[in-house]
Amino acid sequence: MSENKQSDICILGIESSCDETAAAVVKNGRQVLSNVISSQIDIHTLYGGVVPEIASRKHMERINQVIRQALSDAGMTFSDIDAIAVTYGPGLVGALLVGVAEAKAMAFALQKPLIGVHHIEGHICANYIAHPDLEPPFGCLVVSGGHTHLVAVRDYGKYEILGRTVDDAAGEAFDKVARAIGLGYPGGPKIDKAAKEGNEYAIDLPRAKVDGSAYDFSFSGLKSAVLNYLNGAQMKGEQIVQADVAASFQKAVVDVLVSHSRNAIDEFGFREFALAGGVASNSGLRAAMEEMCKEKGVRFFVPPAILCTDNAAMIASAGYYDHQAGRRSGSDLNAQPALRLGDR
Ligand code: KG4
Ligand code: ZN
Prior knowledge:
The chain is of the alpha/beta class. It has eleven helices and ten strands. The strands form two sheets. Strands 3-2-1-4-5 form a five-stranded mixed β-sheet, sandwiched between helices. A five-stranded mixed β-sheet has the order 8-7-6-9-10, sandwiched between helices. The site of zinc ion (ZN) has 6 residues, from helix 4.
């Protein structure tokens, strides 16, 4: 603690919206002092996806220990923390409730400010941690297991949604297609790996547009096209090449994500563009987005993979900017599973 100045603000972040129980301490919104993530992936893999009831139970078992570890890694005690930031939506209601109840109890017992954070806002803020010189305004594509949002970040805490998915999220499509071709859960990283060995032009798949809405996304047609291809191959007794399906599918998703982002850069004149969310760890997407931004003369930002998937450092960072803006949550803070970005 000795290197901390009086004016430094240290936020304890707590994240439990899906299948990671996480706690972190972040100084002044950008400097990670600790980042503890207890993943439940091994347990949910047995069921081929996240089982909400199991997720809540595991969060309850682990949350105290994860918080203690985060404080200890940061060399701090409870009293050194300036505020507690917690994800209160969107996500699985039972899972969110564990983090929210814990944060509320801590804030009450320690008499510290409580700040409810929007999970997607957290994903965007992961870029502030990874890139100390990044400041709004910028464009951001948030692609995760539950969300696909093209966002204009106008200022800290001020977002305009330019487009969103009308059906499946990008990560959800990765997970469903991975299951269909026998790669299992979680699908994103497995497709990413398999795609490296495949031919991305092997299968002709659609690049869906949403009528009348230039920036919205739709991935359910693409998922159906992959399933139709697999059924067709099975009926003809043809062997599918997993790597080719993975590569062609990944290319179809990446093409749409990149072309919408390119159009947004053209229309809104972003000079800086960031990628966020679990799918932002995809190597094909990172490379294609970087190339497009280079072509456009736009600075490109993406966090390292560990800050792309769910973590609490990003929640603490978002909480810091809320804290500085004077935003506080009351003891009536509740889990909001369907919270939309911009709702407060
Ligand atoms: O952001 P995140 O950890 O959780 C949500 O907020 O949803 O994102 C998880 C999603 C999963 O769908 C997972 O398959 C996907 O991110 N994902 C990836 C990769 N790593 C994780 N998708 C594509 N390529 C990856 N390398
Ligand atoms: Zn997430």
